[in-house]
Every structure is written in structure tokens, then in C-alpha cells.
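Weekly structure sync, notes
Attendees: PL (lead), two postdocs, one rotation student
Agenda item 3: pending single-chain targets
PL asked that the sequence for the first pending target be pasted directly into the notes so everyone works from the same version. It is reproduced below exactly as submitted, 169 residues in total.
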Amino acid sequence: MSLFERSHILLGDTGIERLQDSHVVIAGVGGVGSYAAEAIARLGVGKITLIDHDTVSSSNINRQLIALQSTLDQYKTEVMAARIKDINPHCQVICQQTFIDQANLPKLIAQPPHHYDSIIDAIDSLTSKTDLLAYCVSHTIPVFSSMGAGGKTDPSLISEADLMDTSVC
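Predicted structure, written out during the meeting:
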């Protein structure tokens, strides 16, 4: 049985090849980003760039996939990269331990030398998030963005919307 046999049934040869040839950035490897990174690794994405400046802390254990007693004080990107390689050894993983801001975006996300098929925005800093989204829009890079849910208690209110239609990010 191949690693991606179930996905192959659904997507066929062309779909699997497209995934294996794709490069996805995960910006923020915390509560949302760690789950997103694992999901796309299990799907068969061939190259993943992880961007996060933070290390795993004990306060992350209740909500982050990578947060364990054994991973405390390690860079989130490095812990996630090891997990991805354990799941999908064919996936190339690039780690960037940096805080995303307007000044370093051109270097981090520039095309060329990089080519990204899409970016998953799982950043929890509003300024970094808006800097990344503005950069992606101005450079026509597909981006999927997750907004914060801290303090929210009604999951039935979760919805999909254009960023301009959201409030209290």
C-alpha cells in the first residue's frame, strides 16, 4: 500500500502529482498552523516552508499539536519539521525562525527565488497578519487566512468571509 493510496483514489494520478509538485508556506506554527501543516503533509504536499519565530512553551500544551513536555523550549518550526518528516519522509521542509513583518516579507516570500503555490496564514499577530495578506494580494499569491478565536465561546458563529467583511480579528 502506498503512502497516499487513499488520496490517490480521490485525486487520481494528476492530483497526486500536482500535490507532490506543490510548495505551501505555513505562516505561524501554533494552534492552527501546526494542524494545517500536518494535514497538508498527510495529503502529500511535496514542499512545505514553516515560518514562526517562537518556541514551544507549557502554555501551548492544551491547544498545539507540537506542544509536548518533550518539545518545550524547542523552535516550533523544528518540532513541526521533524513531525512532518516522520509522517511523510518524501516532503521537503524548510524552516524559517523569524517574526514576519513588513520589512522582511520581500525576503521571506519573494518570487523568485521562491515559488509558492499558496500560503496558509495562521499568524496571531494582527500587524504581521495584515502585512502578509497585503503582500500576498499585491503579488497575487493565493492565501488562506485563519482569524483568531480567543475568547469566543459559540462555535456555531464560525463562518467563511472576505477579510473586509470581518470584525474583531
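Discussion points:
- Helices lie at 5-20, 33-43, 76-87, 105-109, 126-138.
- The first strand starts at residue 23 and ends at 27.
Action: rotation student to compare against the earlier draft before next sync.
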